[in-house]
Design goal:
Number of strands: 16
Radius of gyration: 39 Å
Protein name: Lipoprotein
Oligomer: single chain
Strand content: 35-45%
Number of domains: 2
Keywords: Signal
CATH architecture of the largest domain: 3-Layer(aba) Sandwich
Shape: globular
Distance between the termini: 131 Å
CATH topology of the largest domain: Protein Transport Mog1p, Chain A
Largest sheet: 7 strands, antiparallel
Strand order of the largest sheet: 9-10-11-15-14-13-12
Order of helices and strands: HEEEHEEEEEEEEHEHEEEHE
Structural class: alpha+beta
Amino acid sequence: MRKRNRAKVSTTLVVLLMGFSLVACGSSAPALQPSVNNTKETSPAPEQKPEERDVIEAEGILTGWADPHTVEIRVKDKAMSFQVGEDMQKLLDDIDDEDSVRFKYVEKAVDASTKQLVLTGITKIASEDGDKTGTGAGNIVTSDRAKTSELEVTVEGITEKRPVTLAQAKGYSLYIFEPMAFDAKDHELTMKIDPRYKVEIEKLPSDFNLDYLKMDAKEELSEVGEVKELTPEQLSNGPMKDARLFMMSQNGKKTQYFIVKELDGNGFIFHIDAPVGEPSEGFLPMVYASVNSIMNE
């Protein structure tokens, strides 16, 4: 009895051990087979930033804006254009055209043959003797031109020579008549008795685009009335016969002008407001004579 029972027990143990072995083999089998989707996933390589050279520092003269995102700086008599981001535009708010500046920029490669200059910092260089700009009689001027002179002007059909005084702003000078006042900081010429009669003078960069300016003029003048452009033939016998662009608009209250004149490679825009009234008879003839006397400094 005891041997038989032992045999049964032994047999049972053998069966159980064989069962465990089979189960173990069954559970380990998948580990020996490579998974169908066992491809190792790799993270994409980080995007490479465009190659940038080191920051370059330089000094020059701020010429002006070529467009809302491009400013021109003259470095050693060479005009250079720089892209300006929104953060840089704030730094330029307190810097006027023709101010001396110290600035930083980087070169970005657009393609194999083109580089883009991007402004990264700019500060105004204070002049040692301060800003010596004239606003009319009695003000200090730095130009070599005579401080007083005479200009010919035609008012109400009468042509005569009238005394004028030299005034200077950053980058240019001009002669003004006694009834006029000139604000060199704001580049604004006005009638003393009524400052609504005014001329805003804007100096352009050397690479200004006349077609773009014409679009700007249409947008600016359309707020007043229908925009008209005078042809060279229409200007040929007038005081602004050498204007590169002469556009105007008017309504019952005023006439507004957008005039572009070029002098020695530099362009100027004259934004003129001439309200309807008695002073308007002498205002425009004096304005034309004054702006035609402008010289680069």
